[in-house]
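queue> pop job 88
queue> type: inverse folding (structure -> sequence)
queue> payload:
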């Protein structure tokens, strides 16, 4: 009889547990059911980007069906309201779920710490709906402020308070500071009229980071973003008018609470651990019921010193993975394995252009911190959705970013339909195929031709045309010389008895030309043309690559790779023989066709989604299959 595993909650922990169970089970008959009140997974670490209108809400929402496509996980949209742990049952309003193993992964909820008025008058930032609600409210505030004649009412509408200077609060106020500039311009409001405040009872912001990183972020908030930072300030109450402190108050139409969370354990008759209402678990993530596991923010897994691990994504993923492995071990009659969480680092973005991070105990510079945050999200999305999830993330973060863009971003994010590139792709592919076929007819696969082609033949006769005796003269038209890179536009003239019979322009690049040493000619002479065998290898390779690139571009298959090879071949030519004026266009065409030219009227329209589906199926099932149901599905 099949073992039934019920997972409640589709956050980071629940998804990892479900994918791990699906991946690890082999011959075992295991039914995996994942229940969540939403049909999507939310990237909670990016909520501030939606609330601050950096990206569309679709950029943080991932369909659960797409995540568990090609798996045996049964995804159910429902809300569990109660549990009968003694009889292994869970209940929603309309259904009953029986289980042999239960994984509680309901995450966390905001913790108001009993402060009066917060729940009624403050916004929270802990769900997809929260982020959208905040964004729309902020838009409304600026619209109303632009129409408001009463000075005090207008001032209140343009005052925004974020309570809590931890990761979420600092990221939220950073996004709001950037977005407010665009809103001011859009609604004709002086940016000096906007008041941004972040408040915390601790002595510094980002208290979990090193003091140097905290100070760096604090300075950026105050000096660059003009945010008021109120520290050592205890919030006493929230009212319709704003927020009240121990020693004062701020009138504000917007108060965002980001100062604490607690385990979403309401209604659970299980032992809790610590002030955050997290469930008490043993070292294997089990509650007092040995077939019930609690993971992520809800689970109170502790380190060797008895301190619960921080409620962060790495904790969620690693406890989800550990609990799933322990269920597999129990089914197989093996011992439970201790679950240990290892944190690798933290990144906190303050708007789009500033980020602080600590990776493996090292503080990274701002630019590298920004890249690391991208890489972490890319890695996670690659694990759960493959290439399509990564491309979708980059699309929203880079091309469809909503906040004000600099002049370069405005241009590179402009979109164009891929089919406009189809004629160029076909013509470029045709030219490469023609070049390869010509070389075949000239005997490039049977006799040495490369030395002559590169102008490095050992005697003048072999380098000369068979139809006439002439002298070749090269004249510089335009030069840029730096030593490291030298660029030339030259005129190549053919002279017979002193008279010019033909001339043509070419472009040439030199790398590392110092004195008598010239890198490319040295490499060609000593490596490529070292002997006839090596020369023939490279000669045949050139022919094969030219024909291959031609076929790839004509068919629109792996167009980016084909275009990249095209650029490489042309770079080889421009650094050796030079690139003649008639073929300069091929370099620019190769760059243009890198931008997805095969996605329209080309095989890439089918190939790229198919390969992603094959990867997803293999990664999620550890079984390599080339053909399976829905393997040709395009991206959702």
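queue> result:
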């Amino acid at each position: 009889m099949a073992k039934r595993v019920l997972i409640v909650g589709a956050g980071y922990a629940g998804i990892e547990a479900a994918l791990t169970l699906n991946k690890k089970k082999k011959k075992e008959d295991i039914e995996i059911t994942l229940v969540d009140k939403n049909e999507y997974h939310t990237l909670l670490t990016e909520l501030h980007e939606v609330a601050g209108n950096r990206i569309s809400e679709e950029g943080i929402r991932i369909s659960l069906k797409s995540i568990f496509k090609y798996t045996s996980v049964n995804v159910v949209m429902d809300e569990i309201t109660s549990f009968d742990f003694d009889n292994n049952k869970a209940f929603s309003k309309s259904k009953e779920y029986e289980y042999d193993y239960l994984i509680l992964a309901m995450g966390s909820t905001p913790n108001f710490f009993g402060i009066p008025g917060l729940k009624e008058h403050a916004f929270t930032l802990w769900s997809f709906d929260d982020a959208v609600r905040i964004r729309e409210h902020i838009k409304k505030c600026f619209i109303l402020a632009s129409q408001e004649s009463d000075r005090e009412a207008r001032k209140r509408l343009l005052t925004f308070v974020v309570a809590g200077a931890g990761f979420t609060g600092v990221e939220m106020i950073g996004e709001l500071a950037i977005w407010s500039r665009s809103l001011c311009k859009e609604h004709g409001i002086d940016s000096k009229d906007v008041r941004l405040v972040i408040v915390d009872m601790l002595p510094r912001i980002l208290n979990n980071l090193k003091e140097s990183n905290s100070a760096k972020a604090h300075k950026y908030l105050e000096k660059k973003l003009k945010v008021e930072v109120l520290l050592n300030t205890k919030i006493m109450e929230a009212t319709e008018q704003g927020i009240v402190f121990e020693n004062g108050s701020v009138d504000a139409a917007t108060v965002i609470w980001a100062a604490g969370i607690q385990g979403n354990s309401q209604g659970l008759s299980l032992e809790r651990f610590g002030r955050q209402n997290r469930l008490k678990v043993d070292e294997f993530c089990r509650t007092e019921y040995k077939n019930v596991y609690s993971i992520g923010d809800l689970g109170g897994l502790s380190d060797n010193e008895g301190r619960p691990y921080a409620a962060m994504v790495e904790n969620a993923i690693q406890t989800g993975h550990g609990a799933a492995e322990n269920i597999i071990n129990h089914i197989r009659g093996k011992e439970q394995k201790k679950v240990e969480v290892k944190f690798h680092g933290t990144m906190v973005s303050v708007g789009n252009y500033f980020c602080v991070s600590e990776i493996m105990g090292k503080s990274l510079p701002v630019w590298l911190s920004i890249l690391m945050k991208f890489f972490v999200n890319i890695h996670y999305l690659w694990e759960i959705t493959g290439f399509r999830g990564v491309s979708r993330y980059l699309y929203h973060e880079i091309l469809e970013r909503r906040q004000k863009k600099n002049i370069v971003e405005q241009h590179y994010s402009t979109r164009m339909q891929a089919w406009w590139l189809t004629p160029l792709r076909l013509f470029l592919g045709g030219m490469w195929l023609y070049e390869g076929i010509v070389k075949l007819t000239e005997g490039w696969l049977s006799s040495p031709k490369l030395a002559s082609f590169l102008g490095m033949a050992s005697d003048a006769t072999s380098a000369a045309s068979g139809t006439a005796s002439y002298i070749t003269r090269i004249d510089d038209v335009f030069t840029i010389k730096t030593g490291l890179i030298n660029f030339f536009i030259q005129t190549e003239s053919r002279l017979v008895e002193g008279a010019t019979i033909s001339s043509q322009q070419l472009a040439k690049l030199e790398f590392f030309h110092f004195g008598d040493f010239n890198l490319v000619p040295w490499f060609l002479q000593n490596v490529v043309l070292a002997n006839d065998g090596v020369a023939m290898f490279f000669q045949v390779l050139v022919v094969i690559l030219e024909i291959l690139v031609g076929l790839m571009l004509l068919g629109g298959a792996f167009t980016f790779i084909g275009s990249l090879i095209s650029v490489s071949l042309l770079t080889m030519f421009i650094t050796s023989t030079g690139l003649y004026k008639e073929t300069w266009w091929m370099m620019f065409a190769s760059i243009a066709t890198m931008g997805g030219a095969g996605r329209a009227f080309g095989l890439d329209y089918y190939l790229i989604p198919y390969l992603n589906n094959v990867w997803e199926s293999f990664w999620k099932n550890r079984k390599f299959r080339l053909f399976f149901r829905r393997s040709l599905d395009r991206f959702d």
